[in-house]
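pls read this stuff:
=====
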Amino acid sequence: MTRSTRLTPAARAAAAAVDPELIAADLAALVRMRSVTGDEIAIQGSLADWLEALGMTVEIFHPDPAAIREDPDWPGEEVSRAALPVVIGRAGRPGAFRLVLSGHVDVVPEGDPATWSGDPFSGEIRDGQLYGRGACDMKGGIAAILGAVRALRVSSALDTLQGELIVALVPSEEDGGQGTLAAIRAGVTGDLCVIPEPSSLDVIIAHAGAITFRLTVPGKAAHASRRTEGVSALDNLHTLVRALEADEKRRNAAETEPLMTALGLPYPTIVGKVAGGEWASTVMDRVVAEGRYGVRLGQAPEAAADELRACIAAACARDPFLRSHPATVEITGARFGSARVAADHPLPTGLIATARAVTGRRPKALGVPYGADMRLFINVGDTPCVIFGPGDVRLAHGADESVPLAEVEACARVLAAWVAEELGAGAA
């Protein structure tokens, strides 16, 4: 660890107190807890116990999912759920400057186990990488939070914080963010917030968003031997996909923000699922396609939905059959908005300075093309928020998902030092 005179003695002591062996053990245990979205109760009970053992005052509550669905800022959902268990840990002085460390405990399904080189929930360590579903997204970040809190306690900084630290562990991020919305409505807001989602230890200050949609495309049925007397819904879908491709090109070409143009394709559109047809020798009279549509930086999901509908409506108007039999567009599932924090805001500048002092590496300030709970803290909770965490997001959601243990350790050290710095641990 590179030390710097910029860090206070309390911050240096907190960073040095991180225990890499305990972090690895915590992360392996977390990965072994199968917490696929919609099934987070068990892991939340364990995490509540761990935070309490680390010296935090802990609350676990279960907001009514039906009530959250009525919230005007409801971010949608992909799975049916009967519970939204939220864990909140508190330390320090309530009513003073407040920091939030937040992470989601839910993971996506593991997919076909045959595509993995081992058990998807083994938590196996090979060559410094810990493997398993959620290791990268984002149980590595959860382990870093636990490691930081433990280090703050071991170094005595947790008992001398001059402000308040909140740890918020939430469900339902993968399918929209209902857990974070529930936490915000319960008062989990602050002056600054860090989410240790995978960022390869760079600082994410801007992210795009995405909505999911269902496109129902009509056709006209006919016997295969007389197919020219029918109109294939599949052909009509092809027409609309070409329109979506042109729309994607136009929307991305219009972007001028360097954080986003650097990504090449910040706002992708895809059709990921197609179903249609009832008989092999019948011209299809209906196709249903489902896909993802990017939400531009500074754009609300509703505005993106309007752009999508306009694109489909214009394409239908240009087609002789679809003009009289237009396709329908439904917005389904998660609704990830976009968000950003200014590059010169005290949150990214302070976190970058602390990370450089602790690790010797200066993180880059970046934008990313996907949505995250960051936007809920910023747009709903009025809390400046960035992403800074271990792991490469390109490994998330795939077979053999993994995270470098060295990055988890480094993240924990940075978070521990940052909390001690920002909250004046050890000050008179």
About this structure: The longest helix spans residues 233-253. The domain at 9-207+339-422 is CATH 3.40.630.10 (Aminopeptidase). The longest strand covers residues 209-218. The CA atoms of residues 158 and 298 lie 37 Å apart.
